[in-house]
What we know:
Blueprint: H1 2-12, H2 23-35, E1 57-62, H3 83-90, E2 104-105, E3 115-116, H4 117-133, E4 138-143, H5 148-160, E5 165-168, H6 177-185, E6 189-194, E7 203-206, H7 209-224, E8 231-235, H8 241-254, E9 260-265, H9 271-285, E10 290-293, H10 296-308, E11 317-320, H11 324-332, E12 337-340, H12 343-358, E13 367-369, E14 377-381, E15 385-388, H13 389-393
Amino acid sequence: MAGRRGRRKRRTGRVRPPGRLPAAGACLVLLGALAGCGTSKEDDGLGAVGTLHEGFRIGLLLPGDATDRDATDRDATDRGMTHRDAADRDMTNRDRAGRGSRTGQTDERAGAAPVDRYETYDRPLITRAVASLCPRCEIVAANAHGDRAAQERQMRAMLDDGVRVVILDPVDPRTTAQIVARAKLMGAKVVAYDRMANGPVDAYAGFDRVQVGQAQGRALLRAIGGRRGPVLLLNGPPGDSDAAELKKGLHQALDGRVTIGAERDIAGWSPRGAADGARQALATLGTVAGVCCASDVMAAEVAAVMAVSGIPEGTPLVGQGPGPGATRRLLDGAQAATVYTSIAAEAGSAARLAVDLACGRTVYGTAMVSNGTTASIPAVIVPPVVVTRGMAAGEPSVRRRGEHPAPEAARENAAGERSPVPSPTPAPPAG
């Protein structure tokens, strides 16, 4: 017994030299470390949810056709067409009335089928951008068709199915906090796209609509020049966050510099509503120094009203979110300027943010923003570009798909300065 106790004591008293692990333990530690590493993952504590080598699924939640707050037919550059080609194509078609629905692309011709902007432009652009960044990744897309509850169900189903990075373009940004918080609890990354979502989102890619409104106001002031008289403003619908931001930026540029003779908030972004509002206002005012519309689809109808209301030819009309119809009006002199916002740049930025977040990389943007529930969100803000008649007429071709509509030397940033538009791709700050 004594011998056995001695042997047991000697075994229990054995001490392993410091810094050494059993072979099996060392292997487990190494495997665990490798399993947690994504391609180009930084040790930033964010945690990868996939790798470029193996690929992963990216959820894409689109709002569909319940109020397109952006242009119905973004400039033909998003499809690799020249302005001249787009204008020629559009000569026999009316502007598509899409500001009044999130389809955004409802052709007003009798019997014409509506076109969903998000299926026509955003989805294929994001899919192509993701494929170029991560060939083995898969886009899992869902379109809510304007139904907030349906979008919540779609996002819940994606998360339950194991999707761990989501690009979310919300139907109603005010109601997303709960589902975004659920995604975060499940370890998913969320990129807000086009419209900032509430909740703990990881990043945002889109436009600053206050900047767009400011750019519209400055374009109107330049076009008015020395003309005297009041201006007419036709805004988006009351209670709409995008419309409110556009209106805020517009007033920041115009207040104290011109006399606002009449201002109308147009329900549903309706082109016909804009035409009715313009007709009534012009009948009261008699003449105006200029007109600004919250969208180019509205501007199409307002231009027709101005032409038959005795308004002098050449009276400035400004819109935003140009399509081929706006290009034609610029070339014909029926419209003084438009403010272009590129879906292609926005989509490419969202794809880059989603892939980088999934791989555990720290993402950087052009700004840090807040959504009211989360502060310091990295954001890639695609700058608006003012396009005038001379810029539209002077462009011989589009150098690559998705590029801004004016030659680089003639591009104007939101501050009204002529300069190249910066790349929307997130990049770390210098130093």
